[in-house]
Amino acid sequence: MKSIETLPHSVKTESQTLDIIALLKEGISYSNFDKIYRELPLTLADWASFLGTTTRTLQRWKKADAVLPSLSAERIVEIFQLYKLGVEVLGADGFKKWLHSNVEALGGKQPIEFLSNSQGINLVRTKLGRIQHGILA
Predict the structure, then answer these.
(1) Which tens digits make up the pLDDT trace of 41-72?
(2) Which domain holds residue 93?
């Protein structure tokens, strides 16, 4: 099975889907999440919000190197895949800036505001895909 860091930004094969399902079934330890946390331009408070928890709970998970709840693990994978797409499309600095910019195509809101649920993540992914293909987003 692949580690979370090697997952593609979009799933194109059944094998990739099965890898993600296996990863989520096995669970993601806090130490594996911490690698993602350190790579992405998001604060611990951002992550707590996206995962529907508190920073204090994240700190407890860290101390115990707990296996994160499956819904949290799934959200982490979705956001990490979105990040990889964003870096591919805009570069690391460009994606970080875009994530915190008011985007007209998102009703003048910042893309980061949409990362707390799958529908929002998919909306941001769609906007990045439009940018990638030269369509105003």
Answers:
(1) 999 999 999 999 999 999 999 999 999 999 99
(2) 12-132
